[in-house]
Write a structure and sequence with these properties.
2 copies of one chain form a homodimer. By secondary structure, the first copy, chain A, is an alpha/beta fold. Chain A has one domain: 3-Layer(aba) Sandwich (Rossmann fold). Helices cover 41% and strands 24% of the residues of chain A. Chain A has 7 helices and 9 strands; from the N terminus they run ββββαβααβαβαβαβα. In chain A, α2 packs across α3 and α4 packs across α5.
Chain lengths: 245, 245
């Protein structure tokens, strides 16, 4: 993990860009985090394209940091400046083609787009955890926040350091991930934008129903994909505080 | 409005039983409520049977009172010791018969059970508001909290003093109420128990979808009818604080 830039906010929050191998990312640490009182960690997930998403990701990260968490995000495989995977790009093109033609998106396309992304991204998130939790001022339980929801499902299932997750509802869930969801047991807080132009509401409700977790909560709000209201962010923050602090 | 008993809690909360005409009820007032700083009011709705429901209703009322609200509940028409309406009782018997026989409950039964209850209960809630808001220490906006959801929908539509509502999802929504829901515009916070043995999940989702309100939020949690988790009550309380304080 190689820090490439560092910025100290007025409230003491430390924001550091880094690279981990060839993966770029940003780490936010609250002033309260010290080796004797390490901050728990939130993984800030997103659909890819760090630069495009930066203002929203920074807002989400700082919301968590205000509650005493460290927060980290990294670029997804095949997004931003990272090399593209030809097979994934082919599936992405087929997905766009189907949507533009008004045709249903086949399970096969979804599998070929999302499953390889999950296979690539989950070990990277685990490497990020290894590196960030190696810092003396960061430790303790980890929460995953965001989409890609299939990545969140897999992490929730296979990574014991992830103890709670705020998942952003999405469509295009591979059937295998839907089955994995039944075996997830950590507390979940699922955010659904009721009129999300990018998402299939019923698919989101079906996935919520499938989760095996004893504590799972669905918060549905009005507005489109990027219109999550501030009070919904507050509720998600309270969920993490309840489970990770 | 005739107070029949009075009890002062250790934290200064005043709990008073009353009758309004032949309607029994209970009013809770925070110590902070004075004529110069009147408390906004929460109407604590329920499916009927004050005595049976008392511990849960008291818990909900005191949660609101802790946030500075007054809270009031009254017996529903035809419940507790109040006289039964023969037509409603006939429809209730038909509903039970259909459920026990494993038959679908017809729209006609739902209409004959719920619509007369709404017609009776809504003017009573309005009379309760008139009386309680006439007390010097209570004033300002009103919130409705609870079931019967059809009563909440009608109140949200016709009663301008009700500025926000926490609605407990329920089945057996008359078609006319579903249509009224489209014209509701006040902020809504809908609680759905995902595995509620008494309720039809899809009917609840359809009603949520129908509401015309620009701000509406659905909070779905695990557990059965009476198993609303404490954090869901906290979120509902925050909703009222956001809109009524």
């Amino acid at each position: 993990m190689h820090f490439t830039s560092e910025r100290r906010h007025d409230d003491g929050v430390l924001e550091r860009d880094f690279t981990l191998g060839d993966i770029p990312g940003t780490l936010w640490t609250p002033a309260s985090a010290t080796a004797s009182s390490p901050a728990p960690l939130i993984l800030v997930g997103h659909p890819g394209g760090l630069d495009r998403m930066r203002s929203r990701l920074t807002g989400r990260a700082l919301r968590s940091v205000a509650d005493g968490f460290a927060a980290v995000t990294v670029e997804l495989p095949g997004s931003g400046d990272r090399p593209r995977d030809p097979a994934i790009e082919q599936a992405r093109a087929e997905l766009r083609g189907a949507i533009q033609a008004g045709e249903p998106v086949s399970d096969d396309i979804v599998d070929r787009l999302v499953l390889p992304l999950v296979e690539l991204a989950v070990p990277e998130w685990q490497a990020v955890m290894d590196a960030v939790l190696g810092l003396p001022e960061i430790g303790g339980p980890v929460g995953y926040s965001g989409g890609v929801i299939s990545i969140g499902v897999r992490l929730a299932l296979v990574e014991p350091r992830v103890r709670a997750a705020v998942l952003f509802a999405g469509s295009y869930i591979p059937r295998a991930i839907h089955e994995e969801a039944r075996r997830v047991t950590i507390p979940l807080h699922v955010l659904l934008q009721w009129d999300d132009e990018n998402n299939d509401r019923q698919a989101a409700l079906d996935l919520f129903d499938a989760f095996g977790s004893e504590e799972k909560t669905l918060h549905a709000n009005m507005g489109g994909h990027a219109g999550v209201p501030e009070f919904a962010g507050d509720a998600a923050a309270q969920f993490f505080t309840r489970h990770l602090s």
